[in-house]
Design goal:
It is a single chain. The protein is an all-alpha fold. The protein has one domain. It is 70% helix and 0% strand. α1 runs antiparallel to α2 and α1 packs parallel to α3.
């Protein structure tokens, strides 16, 4: 069976879209540091963290695997926003 023929639930698409929004918002906040867009991107990251955090609580009803996926996305978003890999030597 081709991959395009697999049935995909609209709920899964929405959940994945919210997680993708969160990751893009965190990366945007990191890349916008020092620019005039820094404040707006940081607010976008906060909105993404809130959306994925709420999603994590909502997904508990679907089972531990769904909630774990959202929790990992939340962890990755936090690490993108916090960790600075450009260390001065």
């Amino acid at each position: 069976m081709p991959v395009a023929a697999w049935p995909v639930s609209p709920v899964v698409v929405v959940l994945g879209g919210i997680q993708l929004f969160g990751l893009v918002a965190a990366a945007g906040a990191r890349l916008a540091q020092g620019t005039r867009y820094e404040s707006a991107c940081q607010w976008g990251c906060v909105a993404g963290l809130a959306a994925v955090g709420g999603l994590c609580g909502y997904c508990i009803q679907f089972g531990p695997h769904a909630a774990a996926t959202s929790a990992v996305t939340l962890l990755v978003m936090t690490m993108i926003a916090v960790v600075d890999l450009r260390q001065a030597c």
